[in-house]
Amino acid sequence: MPKYLPAFLKVESALKAFVVAPITQDQGHIKPLHRYVALRLVIEGGFLPEEISPRPPLAHSLRGKRRMLVFDARQESSSESSIVGGVKSKNVDIVINKKGIGPVVGISLKGTVKSFRNLTNRMEEVIGDCANIHMMYPGLVYGFLHVLRANRAGQPKIGRDDVGIGQDGNVVPSIGRWHDVLSELTGRTMLSDEVMLYEAVALLLAETVPPNVGDLVLSFPSKESSLLLGDFFQRLYKLYDFRFSYKLAKTVSARRIEWDIDSPAFADIARRISQDLHTALGYSPRLATP
Fold first, then answer.
1. Please, are residues 26 and 92 in contact by the beta-carbon 8 Å criterion?
2. How far apart are CA 58 and CA 124, in angstroms?
3. CA 246, CA 242: separation in Å to the nearest integer?
């Protein structure tokens, strides 16, 4: 059995922590989602662990030409990166810094547990953060991920203004409006596009009723939405490759890494979770072609 396997390899484990955690000033309820995103950016995205802040519990090595990935709790760090924006500096939840280039990917994560009628009050903050970063770094691939607790009507200790899903099983109008607002703030592709737009946005609803606590609400957003979690990551990767897939020097490349299938990290997952890697993780590792 592996000695160590990170707790938040799957989004459901991070969302369960988000649902059950008390709300604290240190954002303890959303930190597990930060750790999930950082892990996924390495395993699926092919970014080096040391390029990501906060750093996930991963290390890598070369075995000949093969890139090997291993879980290592000693490498994990909770420190965030501050990016100098066009108006002010800002601590961004997840930042990928490439040596010789600077910040290339940033992801802002927000969590809302109640008072959903006030969601649109966040619009100015969300737009301002994006514009501030893009003014200084127009090439930075910027994502915004927002998770809500899917409090249901009739649930104990849930007030009327804190209900996210009504008796009819549909999201309340305020969440529907927020979805529509976020849909207008995503899709930036070219550097000449509006700086207030994000390259990618995702909206998640986390189940709060047992036995499904932490599961994604799959009925919202709909399959036609531009705010789905899987599409969020794929768009980040696509735009990163579009903007940064070149060599800086003979021995330095900005291209994303492909991991060897025989990496110790994947063997550890297989020993602990008797499923194929995609099923075990909910996403596919970026693997080198044999």
1. no
2. 36
3. 10
pLDDT single digits (tens) 248-267: 666 667 899 999 999 999 99
Q: Return the residue matching tokens 């703030």.
A: 185
Q: How far apart are CA 3 and CA 166, in angstroms?
A: 44
Is pTM beyond 0.90 here?
yes
Q: Which residues contact 107 (CB under 8 A, 6 or more apart)?
A: 37, 92, 93, 94, 95, 142, 143, 144, 145, 236
**90-105 pLDDT per residue, tens:** 999 999 999 888 999 9
Q: The tokens 């961004």 sit on which residue? A: 92
Give one DSSP letter per residue of 180-207, joined into a string.
HHHHTTB---STTS-TTSBSEEEEEEEE
For the chain, the distance separating the N- and C-terminal CA atoms, rounded to the nearest angstrom, is 26
Rounded CA separation 200/231 (Å):
8
How far is it, in rounded angstroms, from Cα 247 to Cα 239? 17
Contact by Cβ (8 Å): 36, 252: no
Tokens 């927000």 sit on residue: 110
Q: Which amino acid, 228?
A: L
49 contacts 265 by C-beta, under 8 angstroms: no
Phi (first) and psi of residue 204, to 5 degrees:
-120, 145
Give the span between the Cα atoms of 41 and 39, in whole angstroms. 6
Q: How far is Cα 276 from Cα 279, in angstroms, rounded to an integer?
A: 5
Beta bridge partners of 247: 253
Helix pair angle (31-43, 11-20), 10° resolution:
170
Separation CA 263–CA 16 (nearest Å): 28
